[in-house]
């Protein structure tokens, strides 16, 4: 499915089947592909089939990149088709495990919120914020939905602003404030006969929809291929004709950063970096009916990896680890 395909024009069942087939061809990417397939099944209304995919991942015997994310998605899906007790048990298990990834926290807290469990949702958001953001100089982008969700629930509970709400206000970038977006009373203005009030509320709703789309979308990135040092050495040893593309590893890294900055300055959105490996590159070349020493294959390989969900978004936050794997922060390394 192309990222610009309107949702109403998508055959979610067919798309899920396509992703399942792709996962069979690329088992190393099965987790990302099957999660996307499950999402399409949920959108199609076939929630039992989506639950079966989550169970398939959890029972696969392979080490998952984010098992708590899979469990959280399973719980959220189960609750939507009357398996509340099992969903609650999974949510309790995730909270007890206290994962360091914000995504499972967001999903289970929003699931509780969606079912009017506001006190439990507030407790879950707060646990996650304290765990992941205490003594953190700059909130990572992935944690922002936690701050915003906690702010929203507290507004519905009528709680007084605290330091975490103040932080949420600070990192919020939309022209309409969080207090306005999360005002529980604003829904009443939709019944107003005053055109000015209606217009103001429509503007607020558009801003909130835009925020949700940004948070939920997983756009297809413009991806640049990154070879880690050991992989590049192996690649050039096996295919010396590619040395013209990669004079040195240091120059390769510098070229990646320069290319991405030029794309960003030209207004290109959704930039990413995909790490390559020699075995997967050789397999890709074989699937294309050509040889790995064909330099024209490199951008196609990068695009294919990105389509399989392997791209890392660029730029990282300055306080996050640099994309090159140096062990330094991006601000200290290629972000200077």
TrEMBL record:
Gene3D superfamilies: Tetratricopeptide repeat domain. This is SEC-C domain-containing protein. InterPro entries: SEC_C_motif (IPR004027), TPR-like_helical_dom_sf (IPR011990). It comes from the Bacteria.
């Amino acid at each position: 499915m192309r990222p610009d395909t309107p949702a109403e024009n998508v055959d979610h069942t067919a798309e899920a089947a396509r992703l399942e087939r792709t996962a069979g061809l690329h088992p190393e990417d099965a987790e990302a592909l099957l999660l996307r397939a499950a999402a399409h099944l949920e959108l199609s209304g076939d929630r039992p089939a989506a639950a079966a995919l989550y169970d398939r991942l959890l029972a696969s015997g392979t080490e998952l990149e984010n098992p708590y994310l899979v469990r959280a998605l399973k719980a959220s899906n189960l609750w939507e088709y009357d398996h509340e007790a099992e969903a609650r048990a999974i949510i309790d298990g995730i909270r007890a495990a206290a994962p360091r990834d914000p995504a499972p926290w967001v999903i289970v807290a929003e699931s509780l919120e969606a079912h009017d469990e506001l006190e439990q949702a507030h407790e879950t958001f707060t646990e996650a914020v304290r765990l992941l953001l205490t003594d953190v100089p700059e909130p990572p982008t992935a944690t922002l939905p936690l701050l915003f969700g906690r702010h929203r629930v507290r507004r519905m509970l009528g709680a007084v602003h605290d330091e975490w709400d103040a932080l949420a206000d600070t990192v919020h970038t939309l022209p309409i404030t969080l207090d306005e977006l999360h005002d529980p009373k604003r829904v009443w203005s939709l019944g107003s006969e005053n055109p000015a009030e209606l217009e103001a509320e429509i503007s607020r709703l558009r801003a909130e929809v835009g925020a949700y789309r940004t948070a939920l979308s997983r756009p297809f990135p413009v991806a640049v291929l990154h070879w880690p040092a050991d992989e590049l050495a192996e690649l050039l040893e096996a295919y010396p004709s590619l040395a013209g593309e990669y004079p040195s590893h240091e120059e390769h890294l510098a070229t990646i950063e320069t290319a991405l900055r030029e794309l960003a300055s030209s207004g290109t959105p959704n930039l990413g970096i995909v790490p390559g490996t020699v075995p997967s590159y050789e397999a890709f070349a074989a699937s294309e009916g050509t040889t790995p020493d064909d330099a024209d294959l490199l951008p196609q390989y990068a695009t294919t990896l990105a389509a399989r969900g392997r791209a890392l978004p660029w730029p990282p936050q300055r306080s996050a680890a640099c994309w090159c794997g140096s062990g330094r922060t991006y601000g200290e390394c290629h972000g200077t």
